Amino acid sequence: MGGAAILLSNRWSDRLRAKYRLVHVVRTHRGADDKSYKCVQQTEDSEGNLGISLSIDLMEIAGESLKSNITTVGPLVLPASEQLLFLLTLIGSKIFKLKLKPYIPDFIQAFDHFCIHAGGRAVIDELQKSL
């Protein structure tokens, strides 16, 4: 078992004491899609008890959201070498019509650690597909 906590502050005086600095925040809103909107809902059951209803599509939608977030944050955090390789592959396949496999950037060069919620094997499997 382990745990971690962090206290964020926007006070100028806390800047000198801070151990870490938050550089990028990425949020993806998928509520416009009905399938995404309805994947987690608070509903009442037949006995009138309030509870949470999880759709069977939850893992798929979570994977799509993660993929969207990684696509957004990639250009912000990846080193220039990884961005250049991605760009060259994209240009080769789109402009020169070469049959190249899409380049998957190596995010290990940008991050020291990945922190994955251990909510179950299905969560880890879906994250593995997205990454």
Fold and architecture overview:
A two-stranded antiparallel ribbon has the order 1-2. The chain has 131 residues and is mainly alpha-helical. α2 crosses α4. The protein starts with 33 loop residues before the first helix and ends with a helix. It is extended, with a radius of gyration of 20 Å. A hairpin with a 5-residue loop joins β1 (40-44) and β2 (50-54). The chain has helices at 34-37, 58-77, 80-94, 121-130; strands at 40-44, 50-54. It is 37% helix and 8% strand. The mean pLDDT is 85. Keywords: Acyltransferase, Transferase. This is FAE domain-containing protein. InterPro entries: 3-ktacl-CoA_syn, FAE1_typ3_polyketide_synth, Thiolase-like. Residues 1-94 form the FAE domain.
Q: Distance between termini? A: 25 Å
Structure classification: mainly alpha
H-E string: HEEHHH
Main beta sheet, described?
A: 2 strands, antiparallel
Q: Which stretches of 5+ consecutive residues score pLDDT under 50?
A: none
Number of strands: 2
Radius of gyration over all CA atoms, rounded: 20 Å
The percentage helix is 25-40%
Helix tally equals 4
Give the integer mean of the pLDDT values.
85
Q: Which term fits the overall shape?
A: extended
Strand percent estimate: 5-15%
Strand order of the largest sheet: 1-2
Pfam families: FAE1_CUT1_RppA (PF08392)
Catalytic activity: a very-long-chain acyl-CoA + malonyl-CoA + H(+) = a very-long-chain 3-oxoacyl-CoA + CO2 + CoA
Domain FAE: 1-94
InterPro entries: 3-ktacl-CoA_syn, FAE1_typ3_polyketide_synth, Thiolase-like
